[in-house]
Amino acid sequence: MSNSLGWIGVDLDGTLAEYTGWISPTYIGKPIPKMVDRVKLWLTEGKDVRIFTARVFVGGRVTFDELYQTKTAIEKWCSYHLGKPLPITCTKDYGMIELWDDRCVQVVPNTGERADGKKEN
Known about the structure:
Blueprint: E1 7-11, H1 33-44, E2 48-52, H2 64-82, E3 88-89, E4 96-100
Parallel strand pairs: 1-2, 1-4, 2-3
């Protein structure tokens, strides 16, 4: 079931799965329980959830064979830990309504100001 209001992007490494450094294109860390539970809840609510990861960026040194292996590994990980494979992307579009990521800094729209109130150095 797709949510007509848009989709939620969830980063893989460090957000949905543990990440302590690069091992291989097909290695995915242990699930992070709180985030896995959150994604499962969204899925039961019929929300459109997608894996948002740079692992599937087709640029530089990634071959199509490595891309296929990576996508297959992510789909298998999702099937095992979330109950089904999720769409995988590295591209934002106007349908994305949220992004859950361990590296993001939220900005107040049209201001350039950090939403968390922290000051830059």
